[in-house]
Amino acid sequence: MASELKDDNVPDLGLVDAVSLPAEGRVPDPVTGAATGAEYDRYFRIIRADGDLEAWTRSCVAATGALLDDMPNGGLHDGERADLLHGVVLVLRSTLNRWLTAVPVTPAAEPGR
């Protein structure tokens, strides 16, 4: 399979699907210095942009679905699975919060109606 060159001349070997992330998202932790954000983005072919909340949400749904499907066979210990699920919850919480700021506020329904 021939590889294509994408952004920054990083070969696309078809191993990792591109995902959409919010521009303010930062992985890995800048405190550890394990890799710069740009290095991480190039490696995983991450495109950071605000504005396409639907694409971001679809990326979250696809990634979490794949993760949950793979988890039983991933060979992770309970603590590692808990850490991974904690990260998933943080991402999904952030996504839901973005939706709440993107949609118009509606008055709360009155009890009993």
SSE map:
Elements: E1 4-5, E2 11-12, E3 20-21, H1 37-44, E4 47-48, H2 53-70, H3 78-102
Parallel strand pairs: 3-4
Antiparallel strand pairs: 1-2
Helix pairs in contact: 2-3
General description of the model:
With 113 residues, the chain is mainly alpha-helical. It folds into two domains: 50 residues, no CATH class; 53 residues. The chain contains three helices and four strands. It has a two-stranded antiparallel sheet. A two-stranded parallel sheet has the order 3-4. The longest helix is centred in the C-terminal third of the chain and has 25 residues. The radius of gyration is 18 Å and the shape is globular. The termini are far apart.
* General shape: globular
What's the main sheet like?
2 strands, antiparallel
**CA radius of gyration:** 18 Å
Report mean pLDDT, rounded to a whole number: 75
Succession of helices and strands: EEEHEHH
Number of strands: 4
- Low-confidence segments, given as residue ranges, are 1-5
Q: What is the SS-derived class? A: mainly alpha
Helix content: 40-55%
Span between termini: 60 Å
Biggest sheet, spatial arrangement of strands: 1-2
Q: What percent of residues are in strands?
A: 5-15%
Could you say how many structural domains there are in total?
2
Number of continuous helical runs: 3
